[in-house]
Design goal:
498 residues; mainly alpha; Regulatory protein; 21 helices
Length: 498
């Protein structure tokens, strides 16, 4: 990588920390390269690179933050690039921070919205990092609702001065920035400032946010996350951010943060559906922080379950189990039965990915018993109302498929398809592929190909990378039967779709 010309002053801070950590130059370079791989970066540093850093040269990009993270992990205390005598840069975990205050949370999440709504394609290429799950989930678990979220009311509130939002006067190098994406401020930022100044948020504004969430959720369920994702992000930037930077009292503020958390989680969910996994992960972390500001502990657990589902999809089963357990611990046993069932089912999915039959079965039994305890008239959060017998059957089907228990997988997948409403088109597609996979495992090749062809036709009408990946996974399973008539017919149908 190209680096800046050498400085005259040797980097004694870096030398001291290398000695404290017991690294060789080659060992430090190797660890930086390995950490880079976790973030989707192909780095080629060696002992000569470290020698140059010790002589005073400054590595570019996110490398200073990567070096700082290597020392943080080794020495067990948080170190920054500046602590190592290196220039500040975009932090490698930018967007994954769990903010210390509501104002900071707004700064971070609005920075994501603005960049995502623009033309920064790099943002959608950021890699998912399992290491980025640890701190946010821990901070949520041990944290509590913020003491105050009101703005512009009372002497303690931060009131924007001279028509500018309170954070806009911060130096450019302190504004939220995403690794690898240049920060640009211009007329659009000034227009944003003008929109933000002085807006008073009403209960009607919050109700509108909720209604918009239901609209985008329905579009996502029916047509896939890519259909209206960009419109959702622009709505967050142009409508939700000015509200968060407006004026409101405590009660309205809590409801506002709750609605913003839900829309941000949905932005992450739609990003996840188009395989923008690093971006989705950042949205989920920020939704978790906004939920804490709202004082909505159950919704925070819902966000953690969402993060767990992404981890399952990416085959990080251990992380998926841990996130589900943090969610369970965070809300205890007082949650409604549907919520308890949802949390246990999420844990089961993680165990299934890991091939842990007994643990998976135990979690599924807990989920089933919890849902059996649901009664008409129970107060159930809006986000858990869809977790019903159909969804539980779907979870059972997926788990049994992953455990290669195909007879049970087929039974539960069939049940889920019978019960699941047509509006959940993508979920029905997933379930149909699970059923096709189970039929294939049971030796029913004709039925498996027929079901998969139906799913492929549905996927062709959706903007969902996950939907297409489900179909491709089934196709890979067909390879041992590639010469069979049913398989040739199936592939002819796929060719016609394409």
């Amino acid at each position: 990588m190209t680096e800046r010309p050498a400085q005259r002053t040797p980097n004694r801070q870096l030398a001291a920390l290398i000695a404290e950590a017991g690294f060789s130059n080659a060992g430090l370079a190797r660890r930086v390269d390995q950490l880079g791989l976790e973030h989707g970066l192909d780095l080629r540093y060696d002992k000569t690179s470290v020698t140059r850093w010790l002589r005073g040269q400054q590595p570019r990009g996110t490398t200073p933050a990567l070096i700082a993270e290597v020392f943080t992990r080794r020495l067990g205390r948080r170190l920054t690039a500046q602590d190592l005598g290196l220039d500040a840069c975009a932090p490698v975990y930018a967007g994954l921070e769990f903010a210390s205050a509501p104002e900071e949370a707004v700064d971070i999440v609005s920075g994501l919205w603005r960049k995502d709504s623009g033309s920064h394609a790099e943002l959608r290429k950021i890699a998912f990092t399992p290491a980025g799950l640890v701190v946010p989930s821990r901070d949520w678990l041990i944290g509590r609702a913020d003491d105050r979220v009101a703005r512009g009311e009372g002497p303690a509130a931060r009131v924007p001065a001279q028509g500018r939002p309170a954070d806009a006067s911060a130096p450019a190098d302190r504004q939220p920035q995403i690794a690898g994406v240049p920060r640009q401020r211009g007329r659009a930022d000034r227009d944003q400032t003008e929109r933000e100044a002085g807006q008073r948020v009403t209960s009607g504004d919050v109700a509108a946010l909720r209604s918009v969430g239901e609209l985008f959720r329905a579009l996502d369920d029916m047509y896939g996350g890519g259909h209206a994702r960009q419109a959702l992000v622009r709505y967050l930037e142009h409508e939700c951010e000015p509200m968060l930077r407006g004026t409101y009292g405590e009660q309205t503020g809590r409801r506002l943060f709750a609605a913003a958390a839900d829309l941000t989680r949905l932005a992450g969910w739609t990003s996840y559906d188009i395989a923008a996994h690093g971006l989705a992960q950042r949205y989920f972390v920020q939704a978790l922080r906004l939920a804490q500001a709202a004082g909505d502990r159950p919704y925070g657990a819902h966000v953690l379950v969402t993060m767990s589902r992404q981890a399952v999809y990416l085959a990080h089963g251990r992380e998926a189990v841990q996130l589900a357990r943090v969610a369970q611990q965070g809300i205890g046993t007082s949650a409604p039965p549907a919520v308890q069932a949802l949390l246990h089912a999420a844990e089961a999915r993680g165990h299934a990915v890991l091939g842990e039959v007994r643990a998976c079965t135990a979690s599924l039994v807990r989920a089933e018993r919890a849902l059996e305890g649901a009664r008409p008239g129970d107060e159930v959060p809006f986000w858990a109302r869809s977790f019903d017998e159909a969804q539980l059957s779907d979870e059972f089907g997926h788990c049994h498929r992953d455990l290669q228990q195909y007879r049970a997988a087929a039974q539960h997948a069939e049940r889920a398809l019978q019960l699941r409403a047509p509006a959940y088109a993508r979920s029905r597609l997933f379930c149909r592929v699970v059923l096709a996979t189970a039929r294939l495992g049971l030796g029913d090749l004709d039925q498996a190909c027929r079901l998969a062809a139906e799913a492929a036709a549905q996927a062709a009408e959706m903007r969902s990378v996950r939907a297409h990946e489900y179909v491709r996974d089934f196709e890979r399973r067909l390879e041992p039967y590639k010469d069979a008539t049913a398989v040739r017919t199936y592939r002819d149908k796929l060719a016609a779709l394409n």
